[in-house]
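Action item from last week, closing it out:
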Amino acid sequence: MGNESLSYYRYLFYKNWATTTPAVVGNYTVTFTDANLTAGVYSISNHGLQRQYVNVTVYNNNGVRIRPDDVDVSGGVGQVDIDLSGFGTLTGTWTVVIS
């Protein structure tokens, strides 16, 4: 491969990179208490990550990762409903990390 070939491949890389929508990188973190729940569900209306299918991690007031009863993203981009009704009344401040 000569220099001309290398330049051509760099051009193709740049062309494809410039026309591809980049992935949104980052996460959304929020804290909440039992008072923020509606019928045991914590709702986030806009996490700002510009995609519907996200990873949701929930930590209790002791910093222990817990498994929610359900996570629903069917509301569309930015909307996440986290069902915690099986945990009863929450104690302290809990944290959600969406990535």
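Closing note: The CA atoms of residues 60 and 94 lie 5 Å apart.
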